[in-house]
Design goal:
The chain is an alpha+beta fold and 358 residues long. Helix content is 54%, strand content 9%. It contains 18 helices and seven strands. Helix 10 links the parallel strand 5 and strand 6. Helix 6 packs parallel to helix 9, helix 12 packs across helix 15 and helix 15 crosses helix 18. The longest helix is centred in the last third of the chain and has 21 residues. The chain is elongated. The chain starts with a helix and ends with a helix.
Length: 358
């Protein structure tokens, strides 16, 4: 397997991204469960909040269904079967933002939880009209075969979600990067707005005032905060290095739960051996990260608090004050007492200098 092929295979989406495709196929006269089974997928996978699919598999399912059912507008039809609930926990975060613009920004930030292969962003109007902006739906990985039905389904669902978020909005125009797959009237009928094809981009043109429009339903800021914290803790951004992600997870764990590789790997949805290999490729190890996080935490507690050394040792997961002393000598070439005294001496010098300067 080449590096290019391996990278493609690793790009996954939540199976819920094609939720409803089995019912749609059935309604069009086919056998949805049978078609899915050909690709190793079952209808229950699509209803699961945790099921994943290789991105290329999802595209192949749509392409196969389109051909067998002779249904060129399959992507738009699939979008009509879906709603925000398919986004799982992300739907709760988005739906509880104060404005449509904030909801879009939240979706943009965490869309990798749902689909690692796309990005959503607010952008300028490609036609450069005053008071007009755009929401762009963009594929990220050139290694993934381009599937027009996937674009139609994604942009169609974005349009439906904007209606839900706003309670109804003015769509000024649609840009699609491919030629029409069916009669153009089918597209204009679905979107209720002019559609331009072969533009090289997939986006919705909207009045910029839409971004400041309040959500159409009551919002719960505390629920939004809780869901965002959950997403941050359990779904690391694949755009970040593994080292950065692991360091963040160890920081959260330290002093609350044991900073063990099996636990951190579970948080990051990896096997511990996979995590070790990926850290090795970035030139470090799990134990080296834990040691550095402990070092930084110990220095912060020694120099910024009057906390007893035994308590600091416990918070950085060292077995008592003697272990903290040994670690401090290794980290700082000082005992904990000396580290604390040096920090206090430095603060005294700063204070005296300020007093002398008036």
């Amino acid at each position: 397997m080449t590096a290019r092929t391996a990278h493609t295979a690793q790009t996954e989406i939540r199976a819920a991204a094609i939720r409803g495709i089995d019912r749609l196929i059935d309604d069009l006269g086919g056998d949805g469960a049978a078609l899915l089974s050909e690709f190793g997928v079952s209808p229950t996978d699509l209803d699961s909040e945790h099921g994943l699919l290789p991105t290329v598999t999802a595209g192949r399912i749509l392409r196969s269904a389109t051909k067998r059912l002779d249904c060129p507008d399959l992507g738009l039809r699939l979008a009509a079967y879906q709603d925000m609930s398919m986004l799982g926990p992300l739907a709760l975060a988005v739906g509880n933002c104060d404005t449509v613009g904030e909801g879009l920004d939240c979706a943009s930030r965490f869309l990798y939880v749902h689909n690692q292969g796309i990005r959503l962003s607010r952008t300028q109007d490609p036609e450069r009209y005053a008071g007009v902006g755009a929401v762009e739906y963009r594929m990220l990985h050139p290694d993934i075969p381009y599937e027009p039905q996937t674009i139609d389904a994604g942009l169609g669902l974005l349009h439906r979600n904007l209606i839900t978020m706003s309670g109804g909005y003015e769509l000024l125009g649609v840009h699609l990067p491919h030629p029409p797959l069916t009669d153009e009237s089918v597209y204009t009928g679905f979107f209720g707005a002019p559609v331009r094809f072969d533009t090289g981009r997939a986006l919705l043109r909207v009045p910029t005032r839409l971004f400041a429009q309040p959500m159409s339903t009551p919002v719960n800021p505390e629920l939004r905060r809780m869901v965002v914290e959950y997403l941050e803790a359990h779904y690391p951004d694949p755009r970040e290095s593994v080292v950065t992600t692991v360091r963040s997870a160890v920081n959260r764990a330290l002093g609350t739960v044991p900073a063990r590789i099996d636990l951190i790997a579970e948080w990051l949805h990896m096997h511990p051996r996979t995590l070790q290999r990926r850290l090795a490729r970035e030139g470090t190890s799990f134990q080296a990260i834990v040691d550095d996080v402990r070092k930084n935490a110990a220095h912060r507690l020694l120099t910024g608090t009057d906390m007893p050394f035994s308590q600091i040792a416990s918070l950085v997961e060292l077995a008592g004050q003697a272990a903290l002393t040994r670690a401090a000598r290794r980290w700082f070439d000082r005992t904990p007492t000396q580290v604390r005294r040096d920090a206090q001496d430095a603060r005294n010098v700063v204070t005296a200098t300020r007093v002398a300067q008036g």
